[in-house]
Amino acid sequence: MGVLILAATPLGNPADASTRLREALATADVVAAEDTRRVRRLAADLGVRIGGKVVSHYDAVEDQRSAALAGYVAEGLTVLVVSDAGMPLVSDPGLAAVRRCIEAGLPVTCFPGPSALTTALALSGLPVDRFCFEGFLPRKPGPRRSRLQSLAAEERTMVFFESPRRLADTLADMAQAWDPERRVAVCRELTKPYEEVLRGTVGELSQQVADILGEITLVVAGADRSAPDLEELVEQVADLVERGMRRSEAVAQVAAESGVSRRELYALAVDR
Question: Where do the DSSP E strands lie in the chain?
């Protein structure tokens, strides 16, 4: 019986490639790659000759390719799925093929390896006992700010991928939606010769990254676990109401940002 293999590829340093990845590149019947040119370049850097068929497997074709990949596995072939860097499926293609194989009762396995997510966490200097991965934030300012607003009370350390072109705006939006003093690590070009980690607050770094280039991973501290000052929150509600916002909307916004009960905050605001 065939098998679908998900294999992590180096983030930037070919020396990080695992022995299992090298062997799979040489022996798999089909290699499904996010970028066929990059996987061939990786194989050349590793001194490996790809022995099987190489097919493209990027976001726009993932769904239509998944049936064919599962079909190859059903025929008894070994199919290797790789992304440009790191682990497939983590903000990269692969989920559709995995689901099709699972639904068909076909084997799926994984060759672990480099990950920007865990590498950035390790370098961040922030707590990593509990964390969540949010992938890429929305590109447009409005949806991005709404997403950040919904994460205002998240206590776990958060990890994001971001484009260098949007990095300064994203950090500025974090400062506005949360707190300018929220700690953050901006991890750039991980494992590559020009690897860099900028540590500071979202407010500070939003002013320092306008010209930054390269692959970016953000690690941001979670919300302060200390209990919020309810009286201060009631004052925030009153301030929003004075600016013209309906009380119910003001309570909903402040409750979402602080993580307190909307019902409790509304009762306090009414009694004020």
Answer: 3-7, 30-33, 53-56, 78-82, 108-111, 131-136, 157-162, 183-188, 196-201, 216-220
Fold classification of 117-220 is 3.30.950
CB contact at 8 A, 119 and 43: no
Pick the CATH number of 3-114 from 3.30.2130.10, 3.80.30.20, 3.40.1010.10, 3.40.50.720: 3.40.1010.10
Statement: the pTM of the whole predicted model exceeds 0.85: no
Residue spans in the chain of domains classed CATH 3.30.950.10: 117-220
Please work out, in degrees rounded to the nearest 5, the angle formed at the alpha carbon of residue 99 by the alpha carbons of 77 and 136: 115
pLDDT in single tens digits along all 272 residues of the chain: 899 999 999 999 999 999 999 999 999 999 999 999 999 999 999 999 999 999 999 999 999 999 999 999 999 999 999 999 999 999 999 999 999 999 999 999 999 999 999 999 999 999 999 999 999 999 999 999 999 999 998 999 999 999 999 999 999 999 999 989 999 999 999 999 999 999 999 999 999 998 999 999 999 999 986 666 778 888 888 888 888 888 888 888 888 877 777 787 888 877 76
DSSP code at position 11: S
Within the chain, all domains assigned CATH 3.40.1010.10 are found at: 3-114
For 8-40, letters b (16+ CB in 10 Å) and e give bbbbbeeeebbebbbebbbebbbbbbbbbeebe
- Measured at the CA of 62, the angle between CA 61 and CA 66, to 5 degrees, comes to 120
Residue 57 CA to residue 91 CA, distance in Å, equals: 13
